[in-house]
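Cross-check.
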Amino acid sequence: MLFFDTHTHFDYLQQFTGEPISQLVENAKQAGVEKMLIVAVLARDFKTIQKMTALYPQHLYYGLGLHPLYIKEHSQADLLILEQALAQADDNATAVAEIGLERAIPDLLTDELWQKQCHFFECQLYLARQFALPVNIHSRKSHDQVFRFLKRISLPKYGVIHGFAGSYEQAKRFVDLGYKIGVGGTITYQRANKTRQAIAKLPLDALVLETDSPDMPVFGFQGQPNRPERIMNTFEALCELRGESADSIAEIIWHNSNELFGR
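Predicted model, tokenized:
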């Protein structure tokens, strides 16, 4: 079985652990994680991510974007930097990511900052359209708001709702638009009943796997940095929720992931 971790902050994982990139990549490969997408959060990280990816172009892909959690730090100039970076990007740039909307932190919901979040999200969706790239979307407590943007701004390659934690009805609306659902460590927690039920019912061709490493730890590893190889824990939880065979699940999700973020 081969796996594609469709959402990692591999640069932050390396900084956090201090381990060589070669070791991190090898650890992932040993667990069958053949490919990983590294997503950006700040403009100053773009070059670091590009350099990391260039070391292992068969295994590492990247997305460039401006994360809503850092909306206070982003400037209009960063959008120009992003556009220029996408215009000059190599073949391993396969997404505009991580972008989206954040409504779980009250400090980011003042009128001014919410308008800024919406402005940056909209601008980056148009960049995804301009460069014909899929998106990887942060949508924390903002599914309804994100949906309205995605319905209004159609993209040629759609993308993923990352780290989905919501109901079947919310997920199905995104799937009906053409988007896939990012399945992460949330489903390894029995208490996440609503999300587990949603993932069990959605069509398999609408799902991809992700870790969000070093964030979103899987059950049993709370307090530790998450790692791409722990995608296996999420995969095992997914197999318990689904009726298909493990081989079929792995094959279809590998196909889904490559179709979207591979090259």
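Strands lie at 3-8, 33-39, 60-64, 93-102, 135-140, 159-161, 180-183, 207-209. The chain has a mean pLDDT of 97. Passed to J.P. for a second look.
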